[in-house]
């Protein structure tokens, strides 16, 4: 017999589509709750990719790729403007 997990303790990938709005409303959106979510995400990432016995460049390269994509999205408006400029 499977144990029933309360909706508040389920992870996002375990929530069914019909339960999603009520699951989102149960989340903690205070600054303390958001900081806790970032902290949990950091520790999960660190333990999965950085703090391993045989590590590689995968963990660091993901951070670098996210940094490059973030900066591209941030400066897209200026890049788009320069793309249409004619040089002659």
Keywords:
phosphoprotein, single chain, mainly alpha, ATP synthase F(0) complex subunit f, mitochondrial, 88 residues, 4 helices
What does this structure look like?
The chain is mainly alpha-helical and 88 residues long. The chain has one domain (7-82). The chain is built from four helices and no strands. The protein has helices at residues 20-25, 31-50, 58-74, 76-83. The chain is extended and about 65 Å long. It holds the Pfam family WRW.
Separation of termini?
Answer: 75 Å
**Mean pLDDT across residues:** 84
Low-pLDDT parts are none
Count of distinct structural domains:
1
Largest sheet: none
Helix coverage percent of residues?
55-70%
Number of helices: 4
The amount of beta strand, in percent, is under 5%
Radius of gyration: 20 Å
Strand tally, please? 0
Q: SS-based structural class? A: mainly alpha
Sketch the topology as an H/E string, one letter per element.
HHHH
Please outline what is shown here.
By secondary structure, the chain is mainly alpha-helical.
Write the layout of secondary structure elements.
Layout: H1 20-25, H2 31-50, H3 58-74, H4 76-83
InterPro entries: F1F0-ATPsyn_F_prd
Keywords: Acetylation, ATP synthesis, CF(0), Hydrogen ion transport, Ion transport, Membrane, Mitochondrion, Mitochondrion inner membrane, Phosphoprotein, Transmembrane, Transmembrane helix, Transport
Protein name: ATP synthase F(0) complex subunit f, mitochondrial
